[in-house]
Amino acid sequence: MGRLSGKVAVVTGGVSGIGLATVELFIEEGAKVAVGDIQDDIGAALEARFAGNLLYVHTDVTDDTSIEALVAAAVERFGRLDVMFNNAGAPGNRDALIDIDAAGMAWTSDLLTHSVVSGHKHAARQFVRQGGGGSIISTSSAAGLEGGWSSAAYTIAKHAVLGVVAQAVTEFGPHRIRSNAICPGITMTPIMAKAFGVDDAEASEFEAYLDGALGKLIPSGRVGWPRDIAECALWLASDASSYVNGAVIPVDGGATAVLMAPIADAMIQAGVDYNKSKGRG
């Protein structure tokens, strides 16, 4: 306990999934957290739940000025910034590479890559104003390491996140600002259900179904859960990782360490089979 005592963090996409698990863990470990998201009702409930320790700010991460305002609000409320977690995301455009158009690619890049650029930029500016030092964490994906895990636009955008991290190390290192990426594998979040057209009411059932269908194919024997990613984010946010800079950390049960092409195929088939069992598709 207390691994983030006295620290202030910003978490984008912090009202559900990986973001919510990270917010809960950060506060549990002593941090004050500013959450940026677009789900205002849930955000207001979170602010009430963690009164005094959490600030919710409506934030469209595809808008650079919105992220700038989020960072400013965190500093105004809590006095400083120590950690920036660029986590917000969604499946983006689902078209195949042969079919995708410029608009679909641009929208996905704005959501998944340009938002990470903005988060780096505005967090680093605040860190420099404070005299240097700070941790930036960004959510990439197994799809940022290998092809075949997701759609073309998502895969390309998540690969690009790793380029942002590498450039940040080059430019921000002299200011003692660290930048690292987490690459989740198959992780049971609302985004996973939405990617297969499963509504929120069935999300838990679908997650259990995928765990049974896919867990045995993963070296660690199970799918991932938001808390798994949050624990890695906590370590990267804390002083325990003070010499870790430019790391790309798969949190995937070992899936990207071995030849796992069957997992991607099995994941797609599991989604199809589940929807068929419900009389859909």
Characterize the structure shown:
By secondary structure, this protein is α/β, with parallel strands linked by helices. The chain has one domain (8-187, 224-257): Rossmann fold. It contains nine helices and seven strands; from the N terminus they run E-H-E-H-E-H-E-H-E-H-E-H-H-H-E-H. It has helices at 17-28, 40-49, 64-78, 102-129, 152-172, 190-195, 203-214, 226-237, 261-277; strands at 8-12, 32-37, 54-58, 83-86, 134-139, 177-184, 248-251. It has a seven-stranded parallel β-sheet with strand order 3-2-1-4-5-6-7, with helices on both faces. It is globular, with a radius of gyration of 18 Å.
Structural class: alpha/beta
| CATH topology assignment | Rossmann fold
Helix content: 40-55%
Proportion of strand residues: 5-15%
Q: Segments where pLDDT lies below 50 for 5+ residues?
A: none
How many domain regions?
Answer: 1
| Number of helical elements | 9
Output mean pLDDT. Answer: 93
Distance between the termini: 47 Å
SSE arrangement, N to C: EHEHEHEHEHEHHHEH
Global shape: globular
Question: Under the CATH scheme, which class?
Answer: Alpha Beta
**Tally of strands:** 7
The CATH architecture is 3-Layer(aba) Sandwich
